[in-house]
Protein 1
Amino acid sequence: MINLKNFQQDVVNKLLAFIAPEYGVNNLTIKAPTGSGKTIMLLSWIDEYIRSTADNVAFVWFTPGAGELEEQSQDKANSFSSIKAQSVEDALLNGFERGSATFINYERVVGKKSKAMLTESERDNLVDKIDKAVQNNRHFIVIIDEAHRNDTTKARDIISRFNASKTVRVSATIDNPNSPDIVEFYQVEEESVIASGLITRAVVVNEEIDINLDGTDEFAILFDAAEKKRQAIVKGYAENGVTGVNPLVLVQLPDESTPDLSLRIEKHLQETMKKTYEDGKLGIWLSEQKRNVIDVTKLDNKVEYLIIKQAIATGWDAPRAKILIKIRENMGEQFTIQTLGRIRRMPQPLRGHYDVDVLDNAYLYTFDTDFLNGAFAQGGAVAPTPLLELKDKAKSLKLISERVLKYDMVLNEKLILNNVYDGLKKHFNFTDDLDANYLILKNKGYSMGDEIITKFKQGRFDTLEHTDKLQDRERFVKADYQDNRIDLLHAFHELDRVLHLPLSKVEAMLRIFFLYGDNRRKNTITKMSANEWTAFILNNWRELREEFRKTDVAQSVQGSFDLNNIQQNDFTIPLTERYTYNPKFADAKIVETNVYEKYTTASIVVRPSIVERLMERWLEEHSENIDFVYKNGDKGTQYFSLVYTTNGGVSHFYPDFIVQMKNGDIYIIETKGGENNKGQDKNIDPYAPAKYEALKKYASKYNVKWAFVRDMNEELYYLNDGEWVDEMLSDKWKPIMELFGLKENENYAIEESES
């Protein structure tokens, strides 16, 4: 069983929800960064669906390239016992069996030999096998891997022959189709992948380039810097007990390059740097030349430098590759996200980040400005600052940081059950009278009985503009616990989002609440038959999900969980740090109040949160009262964190700012979205009240000052007294000046110009 990262499980849950017949759309596009484990996520989804249902389905998986991805994906699928993985050749022999996953390379069906495969084969051809599967009432779910490629008329024709009930497209570079009624778009955020430890924290560009090296040869400058960095990584591994990993430098030539460019690179590597083919330290992987490429992706392989082109096999990756030298040749080459993806994977994904700066980043060296501009424009490359040094005056700050090491270890299933029951009982005024409770639910608008309600449209229209003429209709079908198992699974997955429990536990809880068996439990609410219970869950899971969500948040605020399992650590501000910044921001100025030397406003402008930008700028405007400001990280053990309770356990969060005033007072400040100019709430964090209570308790315990800060009409307001209040017009939310005991400055203004 593969242990998925949280974001990976979210993708699996999304796919399981999407596959339900009643789901609103039949096409899903997933954008996932290179290195996020796309194949594992898709296979885990297929595996779980096949294992948990009896659906008469066959999966078809299209891959690009010359066959490498097809073979890799099929090999990985073989490790899942429930998946019948096969090639297109296997499908021509055996057809498309239930529970099968057929991996098809585009070239096999759209290339020169595709015609015979589709129409002219003396034996059963592909179309025949598809038709036979359909005759057996089998339906297809199609996956289109690297969907940005091979989007041709021929490819679309082949895909259409399967008449898929559901279609999933995945890619690192695909755009949002912006047609939610037809295609749903789901994006895996790069920050989630970074936080999981699967990819590097940042890509460091041209660090410590020595432009004063003798000669004008760019090779010497780039390779000298890259080799120094490679040696630093080797040293970092040794000092931190990492064995069996030999860092690899990729030397990428332009796809369209002169014949002698690779010869010049080879000469420099062999004669100047003493990296040769003979000693196994140099490899080359071009279409016309391959040397030392066998097992080059293995972590301990001897090759230190590998010459490649962008057109190297799609899906190829070497997690030990940490450095990329991008060679230019009097031409700009279009940036592709896959290029940087080759060096962003962490070599030991189960271990993740090492919490060592030199080991947790990837490094790019290039003088190709067009390539760099393309990278920054697409957001494919993070532009991190050079390593910033902590100012002496901030080194003495000490706080206690709280952290949850393993959420599953503190998860209390019984407590979750009791909390949810108590929340429902309080909201609905349930009693011990099960019949009365049934009527309460019915009177509250919940659909009761043993029939499943299916809503649909009926009527006719001439143009799409007249679809409003269609009538809403309802169809009633008798529920059956066995026949509706797939639908129930979908509902359980949706409820799991707020219950934080495995599917089996979600089902068990719903049984205790609403399915009256031989033995009544103290948490039983109603008495329903199996079919009534099935209909109740399927008709009302959306309403139940919202009730469970309210209970989760309410219980988290109450803080009913025992916090004995929380780890407490001494926290000091890291001695060095990197922040992302906008390299094109021409008017960058030093931020005097920041704890790090040479931290500039170019880092402030790239923060996605307006309230964070406003806060940093406000603090800098009032530097006469402020000793220093620390912008806290949001993932990692090296940063300051606090615990807060959830329904059945605990979690932790990272307050945004630590501020020390010149009078010695220390403030811990968390920011949240405020209200826009129309009075609409911008705070998307439902756990804000729980985090508010956690910070309040922490501040009281350790005698520090604190506040939650939000923005309204580009002005800042704070709350640090009493209970959480959503409404910002309440007199509880006060102007930020009052938090620090400052008087209003008529010249004070916050500029929101973004460059």
Note: Residues 202-384 form a domain with the Rossmann fold fold (CATH 3.40.50).
Protein 2
Amino acid sequence: MEHDNLFSFSDLPNSFDVSRQRTLKRRDFITAVEAAIQGGKKDRDLKIERLDAIAAQGVDDLSSAKLMRLYTAYMDLHAFDRMITLYKKAENKDFKDAPMVREELAVAYRKIKRGDERNPDVLANKMFDYKLSMQISQDLINEGHGYGVSYENIGRCNRYIAQRSTGFQADQYYANSLFALEEGFARTLESSVGIQAVHANILAGNTDKARELAKVVYLATLRDGAEESNDYFCTSAALQVACIADVGKKEIEHLCGRLENTVTHPWELPDILRDLEKIGEGFPSPSLALAQKRLKAANERRLTMDKMPKARAADTGASASYTTWDKRSFAEDPKLCAVIEKSYSYRGCGSAFRGANRISGNMAFGGQLPDHAVSRKDLRLFEGLVAMSPNELGIKPDKPVKGVDMDKPMTDIRDPEAFILLADRFIRQTFSTESFANSGLHMENNAFDKDPKTGESLYDTTVKSVLQATGKVIGERDKNVDSRTNISAIFALGMGDCRHHAQVKQIMFDTWQKKQMDASLQTMCRRILRGGRIDKDDHDIADFYSVLDTEMRTADIQVMMPVKMQQKDGKDQLYKPEKTADGKYIVDESGKNHSLEEHTLCWLIRKNRSHKLVSFGIRDAFYQQLHYPWAKMDVNIDDIRLNKNGSPIIPAGQISGDKTSTGKSVPVMQYPAVYNSGKRDSFIKDTTGRDINLVGLPMAGFKTPQDFLKMIKDREGMFAIMAQVRAKAAERAKTKDISLLKKAKMGARA
């Protein structure tokens, strides 16, 4: 029986062949599932039959990732009976114990249809489903896994039982529903359960309480990035509470556009329209009328497209989203919009309804950049780290940080700049930025200092070796290859270039910030549940916005300078500036900017309540010492330009005259990279939300933040593992070369 046989980092040097076999087996399974669910919406029954055929081959030996992909495929088709059957048949303990799997099982029991409930036996079975569903959710809460979806499920089940009951019993179930939803929101601060608490209060006639609670739910959606979210549940909640608050045309139009852009399933638009109708019973408003009109029109377009023959739909440009809307911000400020649209954060990742979010790399196209992922587990691990003190983390700053007690939790720090400084030091220590794996290679030189024979640095060789150890073949195009790499895994190993420096910095900042915002939300929520109110001048709201309006954003950029590049076939060679004999940049006297490299870094932006950009800064964890002083560089907003496509052009300092052929300094600019499309994460459907992967390999050692920290601190151990992997990869390559040489000689003799 195949269980989740996890790899430890020490297994990597000897895992080449084993991991390759696992990679191929998983790829073949995922390919089969993806093929099974191809087709139109009318092919639902056929898709389920195909999935059933896969399940019929046996589930006893499936890993949790394979089981989860089959499970979520059934879920997307609303085949709740199949989900329940699969769960019962599965023997993989890691799958069956996973909180997210059990959450979805509880939802399946709630949603499964048993037939005509006018039949007493059918009704009795359905009532049993509701009670079993609630028990699963309550067990999760009791075990310390109480996410919003469990409280929401208990609330919904109680309400459905109440609707099928009478008298005192019905009243009691309605009361239980309201309590579960309110308590769930107060404990988790998740908007998905918060909006249900608002609906429950509307149903109970508590309109004042519903209005006040909606204000906090709205703030929770903003905390989770509702302005730019690709998550239907977050955006749906944001629109509903915005209608209750009657925020105005601009914001409603924006949220409607975002919602249309997130729609992937045919039930979603009708679902939000029903919710808006319920809101209208207690809170009719111009905002509500506008939202209903806009989404009814979108739903009509959806229905029209669904009826089209496939060829005709393709001709019209019909897509799953039914819209071309992709605006990312409420703002009208062109510079703020441009910055947001060309960057991203992890706000809202790892929500209760999804196990993980992924940003695609290029391995599916033959490249060597894996997909990177943020899961519930990553969030919990990094939340654990930022709850520790700098001394516990082993952070050794170059000088004392003003206003910071090194023995108190990082979450006690209020100044973002102080937090950033300490986070940078922690990241650079862990990635051994200033001497990769004690080799002497300063990672800031990695893009420029390559071996003339191989064209690679020690870091490049290490990356390729690890890819091989995890079963991947560089240059092989394979859309279903699993290259998922959790941020936690790459940080624990300590093998990171600029991308990983930025990713770790982003998740640390976002988890730290969420803690600050949650403190304000918690205070306001508890006050409302005790019968209080909040107003626009409330100091807790002011505290919340002061944190919300300061954002760390990760951006993929091109470093541009007016210096000449080496040429090949009349084209600039990336990373290869033309230099004088004494190593100085040769200035392009025409002033034309050339791309020295592609780079990933963090920006720090601040906006005001009028949605205007008020400050912009470069806060790079990577380039700090050698080439660009980007650890803390503030940029005058007036100096930021927009190109003809509306992308931001960021002035990023200068290269001094002692490094140029003319003796004069030249400006450095940051342009968004060609592939930069801002927030572009997608949901991962084959994760239980508790797994940590390294290039597709499920890794051990991440049970607690303390376990995580232990690996982070074991730098010498990780350096040794990377050296062993490199040596093993080199040995295998040499053996392969000898084998090929022998074959060539034999062919020549023949």
Note: The CA atoms of residues 342 and 677 lie 6 Å apart.
Protein 3
Amino acid sequence: MVYMGNEKLIKDISSGARYLLMLMSRPLGLVENKIKDKNIRDFVNISSLSERSVIKYLSELKESGILSSERHVIFKKGRGENSYTLHEKFNLSMKHTEIVDMVLFLNDLKPMQKFIFITLLSSSDDFGVVDGLGLVGLTKLTGMGPQTIKDHLMKMIELGFVFGYSPGGNIEIFPSKVKGMFYLNLVKYESSQLKIVLLEKSLPYNDIIKYHSQNNEVNSKVGRYIKNLSPKSKAIFFNSLTCKVDKFSGGMLTKIVKLKTEINLVQSFIDSLQQNVFKIDGGRVKTVNYAQFRKHLSNFNFFNYIKEDIRKEFLHEWLDNPSLEKEPAHKMFPIAKELSEEVIYLVHLYAFWMYFDVLLPDGMKFAVIRKCKNGSPNEELKSPPCILVGKPISQI
């Protein structure tokens, strides 16, 4: 969640000035919109900007009316210090304040890369997954151009600060533009609430493209729709679908591990899957009977709230769309409805597949993410999924 104050004023200043304003807007040292007894060197230390850049951006903020200053000359102690009054703030929701403090004092990242990381962090969940901001939103907040952000992201992936980035795009089955997803690497940081661990064991499944191209269980409407897509639209479709399945699979996996010992129905379902659906050899899943899993799932009426969340994710824009009766909306809605049911099936399939394939500790939270290779954004999500394990500090 982000609050930008007067968006028009913020929009007119450079990305460097926004970065400095963001740091000045943080609660530390800020009392009633005033920052007292700070000199240029203090801002250089916290921002990693050069002294020349700090002076430049402070002047820009003053000229825009966002900032005013009052000089306090200290007798026989040089240039003195200033008090600054912020007339507008650039507040980011800092729920990861401990991580922000650590990032600000890193030498590996350039100032604008820190700005991007902190901006993404303000919109991320506990695992560093950013869903809903997208490249357009990040551009709007930071003031940097899309290509500049992509170049910085590539370097941050290479340095290990970002696991990956999946771009969004426009495709008619989704009424509004699909926003990209970012996967921040929070493994190296330990907050007071959660310690994130990357499960290095690769998961060679959860391949949405392979599933839809090779599995006869795919519904006919969805299958025909995919076949008629252009290569570019097909890439957007599979990127978006994979990200959504990954997101819900992580949440589903958390529920399975938590409830298997609490609710007999869940444990009975797990036992039935192990006997009739998943063939396990040497601790790994070797084959899956997709038809049997679909049959089992149709008789399993648990986790209905997750099913409703998935339907809402895929259908709420269509249901709220007054043009649903018009072309081409009325043609897309049945496909979107069928696709939402397909995603429910896939989320359950992959969550239970991961449960059987990987030894997972009890009492933890899980997220499924994509880790890019070779320092490049994951344009086609070809890399296998990874599991992030969140260990509550109280259990460590």
Note: The radius of gyration is 24 Å.
